[in-house]
Structure formats: structure tokens, C-alpha cells
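Bumping my old thread because nobody answered last time. Still need a sequence for this structure:
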């Protein structure tokens, strides 16, 4: 043993029994209708008087002389139950039995309804409490349950049926009536498919010439083929075909047409056109369509810019006949009878230019816009003596504002602007007099135009000198 004083190794409890004439303090209970919130140990022990130690009421006694008796009713009113282990065990045993009976109740002791728990009552009025409701296919409906994926697939087989599964009669479809007068020959004796009906509606009965049918192709198309001196221009958007005729040899008529030239951001654009002629001997004039009129000429105004369209006429080799600039690349896809309209205007930018053109073949009819003084006998071998009446001195009939001997500017000639004038002056032709003496072949080579157009410039210059 150590040096410490001897002491107990357990909890030692002591108590004393007191007898008092003072009753314990009353503990207020719950109000009427309120639940009893009881926690073990809270109200089992309570003081008799304020400030005294807690005490447990054992009994209320009554003393009469030397006799003492227990007042049961008074004791129950003051004494609380002390829950010891045997009592608690008994309570749990009672609860276990009651709870076991409740949990084993297979009925509905609480009278819970299906609506309270959101249960499915029936499917289209079909119910089976506690069981399943089976889905069954009928006619063309199929039911394919898949328990592995928890999916029920509902399908049908009717869409694959061919023929007339419903036994529908023709009269039951309420068909549209036909017009016997429009059919002329007979009424349809069979039911038509949609495709056959469309062919019927689009059917071409034939092509007639002078009242006689010359061609038939029921349900099909008739192909139009352009013959000699005839051109066909289809317009899919307008559902039309334009037929152009040139009247044929020996004097083929002029050709004309329209084309839209798209320029890029550098103002460059071109279009290759089939003139309809079978050689390269023709002249092309270019114009721009405006509201109500077409403006032709070597210099055209469009979108605030002055354009100088270049026309290239191709021969059998695909190389331009007139090519004053050797470094210019030809258009290899062109062939004889075709020509190109080229626009180069850097300040124009991206535009869609509506261009009109007309072409006059060699030996063809002259358009009214060409002066009747065009001499067919003028050839590249024209010499200055072709107009013997032209003398260095100007005739006195010239207006008083022009002194005799005054040189006339090249721009006085119709179709020669500043660009053509500059090109002619660079090559030694500086006025109208020198232009009148020049040969068309030389003018065509300088300006990069056809000899027919160069001939019109020379003739215009001579006409001005004759005034």
C-alpha cells in the first residue's frame, strides 16, 4: 500500500429519509390539448422549497395519535415515477409486441388511399389491384417488351402493306370529274398514278404546221435544234425560248443580244458570246441598257464611271484577230464566230453591268446607225487619193468660227473619244484630215477594233471635210 490514506474504489452514495409537514412544490403540467414533452430525468426529482436540495417523494403519511397510514391518492398526486431498469425493460417488451403486430399487418390499418401516395389506379378504366395489366397487340399493332432495357416497344405493320388492304373502291375516293370536251377523244378508263397524272397534264399532243400535225411525242419533250442562221436563247426563269434569225446568205442580218458582265473588286470583267456567224468577219458594237433606252458608243457611262469596253473577235485559231498589245493574254476557250466583251475600270469595283450588243457581218445589211456613205469598195489598200476633193484648204462653207486651214480635232468624229484620240495621235494621226487619208486597216490596228468599225471612222472624217 502506498502512503495515501485508504479510500473506496467505487462510487459511494448516501441518502437520508426526511419527514416534513410542508408539501413539495407543484410542477405545472401541459395545457389542455398540448402534447407532453418528457425527457427522462427532468421531472423525476424536484425541490420541496426554493433553494433546497432535490428530494424524491416516497409517500404522503397521515398520523393519527400513535398510528401512521399512507394516503395513496395524495401520494400519486405528488410522487413521480422513477423509471428503473426492470420498468424500462417491461415497457420495451410491450412496445415490441405492439410494434411487431403493427408491422406485420398486411392490410391498410391507416386507411391510406391511392391518391394520397400517388399510386396508379387504372389504365383506361382497367385496374388489377396488386396485379399487372397486360398490353396485347391487335390487328397491325405489335407489342415488344424488353425486360433487359425496361422498354416496351409499340409498333405497327400496316405501313408496309401493298395493294389495297382496306378494300377501298374507286368511287369511295370521291375522284374529281373529268371534262369529256377537253379530252376530245376518250375518257380515261383506268385509275392513274400521280406520276401518270402529271404526264397527262403536261402531255404535248403535237406540233402543227399550217394545220397539219408534223410531230408527236406524247408524254415526252420536243427538242428544238437551231438550224443555219438561227440561234436559240433559252430562258429558264421566264420559261421561254427566244429564236433569232439572221436571214441567211448572201446578206446575213445583224445579230443582237444582251448579257450581264460581273466585275470583280478591281473593276474587271468579261463575257464570251457566240455571235451566230461561222467566221470572224463581223463588227460588234457595245451599249449599256438604261431605263427606257440603250446607249451605244466607244465610251459608256455606268455607276458614275466612264467605261471603254474592249471587243475581241476570235478567228479559227482562237487568237484575237485584232491584238494591238502582244502581251495581252488571249482567251483560249473562244472559237471562230465568238467574241469577248472586256471591261477594265479600276474605280468601278464590283458591279453587274447590263450590256447590249449587235454584230454586223461582212457584206451584211447596214444598220441605220451607220452612215449610208459607207463605201463597200474601200479596202485596206486605200490611198490618200481615195477622196480627191479633199484639199489642204478648208472650203469657205465652214462656219465663220473656224478659220480656213484650221485642223479639226479627232473627237469631232462620232465614236472617237479621248482614249481613241490619244492612241491615234501617238501613231501619227493627229486630226480629222489625217484620219480621212488613213487606211481602215491601219486605224483598226492602232485602235484594236475591226476594220468595219475603222471604216466608219474614216468615212465620218471624210464626211466632215466635205461639209
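Sorry it took so long. Here it is:
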Amino acid at each position: 500500500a502506498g502512503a495515501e490514506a485508504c479510500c473506496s474504489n467505487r462510487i459511494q452514495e448516501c441518502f437520508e429519509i426526511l419527514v416534513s409537514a410542508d408539501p413539495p412544490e407543484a410542477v405545472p403540467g401541459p395545457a389542455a390539448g398540448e402534447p407532453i414533452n418528457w425527457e427522462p430525468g427532468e421531472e423525476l426529482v424536484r425541490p420541496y422549497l426554493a433553494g433546497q436540495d432535490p428530494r424524491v417523494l416516497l409517500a404522503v403519511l397521515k398520523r393519527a395519535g400513535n398510528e401512521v397510514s399512507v394516503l395513496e391518492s395524495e401520494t400519486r398526486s405528488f410522487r413521480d415515477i422513477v423509471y428503473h431498469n426492470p420498468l424500462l425493460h417491461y415497457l420495451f417488451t410491450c412496445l415490441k409486441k405492439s410494434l411487431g403486430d403493427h408491422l406485420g399487418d398486411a392490410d391498410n390499418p391507416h386507411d391510406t388511399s391511392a391518391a394520397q401516395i400517388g399510386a396508379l389506379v387504372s389504365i383506361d378504366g382497367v385496374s388489377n389491384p396488386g396485379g399487372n395489366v397486360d398490353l396485347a397487340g391487335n390487328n397491325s399493332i405489335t407489342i415488344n417488351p424488353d425486360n433487359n432495357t425496361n422498354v416496351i416497344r409499340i409498333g405497327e405493320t400496316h405501313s408496309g402493306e401493298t395493294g389495297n388492304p382496306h378494300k377501298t373502291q374507286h368511287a369511295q375516293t370521291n375522284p374529281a370529274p373529268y371534262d369529256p370536251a377537253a379530252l376530245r377523244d376518250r375518257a380515261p378508263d383506268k385509275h392513274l398514278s400521280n406520276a401518270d397524272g402529271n404526264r397527262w397534264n403536261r402531255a404535248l399532243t403535237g406540233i402543227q404546221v399550217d394545220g397539219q400535225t408534223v410531230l408527236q411525242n406524247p408524254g415526252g419533250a420536243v427538242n428544238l435544234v437551231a438550224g443555219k442562221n438561227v440561234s436559240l436563247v433559252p430562258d429558264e426563269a421566264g420559261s421561254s425560248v427566244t429564236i433569232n434569225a439572221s436571214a441567211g446568205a448572201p446578206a446575213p442580218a445583224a445579230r443582237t443580244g444582251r448579257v450581264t458582265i460581273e466585275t470583280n473588286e478591281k473593276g474587271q470583267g468579261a463575257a464570251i458570246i457566240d455571235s451566230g456567224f461561222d467566221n470572224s468577219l463581223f463588227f460588234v458594237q457595245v451599249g449599256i441598257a438604261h431605263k427606257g433606252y440603250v446607249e451605244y458608243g466607244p465610251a459608256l457611262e455606268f455607276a458614275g464611271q466612264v467605261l471603254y469596253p474592249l471587243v475581241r473577235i476570235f478567228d479559227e485559231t482562237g487568237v484575237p484577230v485584232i491584238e494591238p498589245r502582244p502581251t495581252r493574254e488571249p482567251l483560249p476557250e473562244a472559237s471562230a464566230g465568238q467574241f469577248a466583251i472586256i471591261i477594265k475600270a479600276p474605280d468601278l469595283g464590283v458591279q453587274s453591268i447590263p450590256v447590249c450588243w449587235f454584230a454586223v457581218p461582212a457584206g451584211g445589211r447596214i444598220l441605220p446607225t451607220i452612215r449610208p456613205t459607207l463605201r463597200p469598195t474601200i479596202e485596206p489598200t486605200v490611198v490618200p487619193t481615195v477622196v480627191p476633193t479633199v484639199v489642204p484648204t478648208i472650203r469657205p462653207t465652214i462656219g465663220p468660227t473656224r478659220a480656213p486651214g484650221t485642223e479639226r480635232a479627232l473627237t469631232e468624229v462620232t465614236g472617237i473619244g479621248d482614249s481613241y484620240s490619244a492612241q491615234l495621235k501617238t501613231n501619227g494621226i493627229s486630226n480629222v484630215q489625217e484620219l480621212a487619208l488613213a487606211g481602215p486597216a491601219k486605224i483598226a490596228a492602232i485602235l484594236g477594233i475591226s476594220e468595219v468599225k475603222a471604216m466608219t471612222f474614216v468615212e465620218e472624217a471624210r464626211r466632215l471635210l466635205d461639209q
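The longest strand covers residues 351-361. Let me know if any region looks off to you.
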